[in-house]
Amino acid sequence: MSHTTPDGVTEYDPEEVQALLEQGRVLLVDVREPMEYAAERIMGALLYPLSSFDAAHLPPNGERAVVFHCAAGGRSLTAARMRQAAGQPAAHMAGGISEWKAQGLPTVRVGSRPA
Question: Could you tell me if residue 111 is inside a domain?
Fold first, then answer.
């Protein structure tokens, strides 16, 4: 279940994010680096590396909420806090793609179909 961190960031678990993606209710933003994204990613996630991140360049929440993810949850929480500081609602996926895979959810790898 989603919950809110003490500083006001909404935190989703991977199964919630998958359901929201399937319903078209989230814009999933991967804040890992391009090499990480190229090697393996979540289908439908857009790349916006934290190393060049600017919260002002993201659309405001509308029909779809912006949710960040990374490898384990640290960078995505940082991105969510930056978005929050820019005056937008902030959310991230706890545990990142590592937890996504641990829960048996599919990924896309270079040269393969969804795993």
Answer: no
- Could you tell me the two tokens for 13? 């678990």
- Residue 40 three-state SS: strand
Q: Domain span at residue 31?
A: 8-106
Give the integer Cα–Cα distance in Å for 23 and 68: 17
Q: What is the pTM of this model?
A: 0.91
Number of domains in the chain: 1
Q: Which long-range contacts (CB under 8 A, 24 or more apart) does 3-7 make?
A: 5/77, 7/81, 7/84
| Average pLDDT of the segment spanning 77-91 | 94
Which CATH number goes with the domain that contains 26? 3.40.250.10
**CA–CA distance, 28 with 46 (Å, rounded to integer):** 6
SS3 12: strand
